[in-house]
Known about the structure:
Residues 10-56 form a coiled coil. By secondary structure, the protein is mainly alpha-helical. The chain has a domain at 31-57. The protein has 2 helices and no strands. α1 (9-29) packs antiparallel against α2. The longest helix is centred in the C-terminal third of the chain and has 24 residues, at 33-56.
Amino acid sequence: MLGMFKRDPKKKLQQEYERKLQAAMEASRNGDMRANATLTEEAEALLAEIRRVEAQQ
Length: 57
C-alpha cells in the first residue's frame, strides 16, 4: 500500500543525466572542452546507473 508513495530512483537519475548532458553541450559551445569531457563522463556514469536500476526492476 505504501509502495505507491515511493519515489522512482530512475526518474531522479534520468533528470540528473539530462542536466549533465545539457551542461556538457553548453561547455562545448563555450569552447571549454575539458569541462565538456568531464561532464560527458559523469553523464555516462549516470546512464550506467540508470541501466543498472532498470535491470533490477
